[in-house]
Amino acid sequence: MFMRNLLFCFCLFLCHAAQAENVGPNMGKPAPENLIKSWNIDVFPNGEGLPEGSGDAVKGKQVYEAYCLSCHGIEGTGGSADELAGARHSLTDNPPDKTIGTYWPYATTIFDFTRRAMPLNAPGSLSHDQLYAVTAYLLYLNGIIKETDVMNAQTLPKVKMPNREGFIRD
After folding, report:
1. From residue 94, how far is each of 88, 89, 98, 163 by CA, in Å?
2. CB 137 within 8 A of CB 62
3. 72: number of Cβ within 10 Å
């Protein structure tokens, strides 16, 4: 009799475990394919994932003044948010200036970060042309490109950042 009850309990446990696998925790619903696609906007250092579009620093200055200046200050020298350009100290000084020109290893990261996170009150709202233009402006402010250099999916990955070799790979 004991074995029969033990076998019954074991079967009951297996049925419950199998049912639990199929049900899940009932936390939300699966994300639709188009939503997943809209989130998959990674840009890699080699430029993979960069969209069509283009812009230069002249146009980027207008974008910067409309969307970035109130937080990052005149010409990216800092305000309520971090400075983006105009570093006066190197990375080995105390305190170091971690601007785009002194710290960021890849120019494509500027585009990727700005597209995902800026402007702070409306991330994802800038067009691809605006993103390339403001990226060009930030590179220009840091003395990395000329004011008239056009940034796009082909030129941006070729920009050599001053601190590209400053990181150690795992």
Report:
1. 11, 8, 11, 18
2. no
3. 21
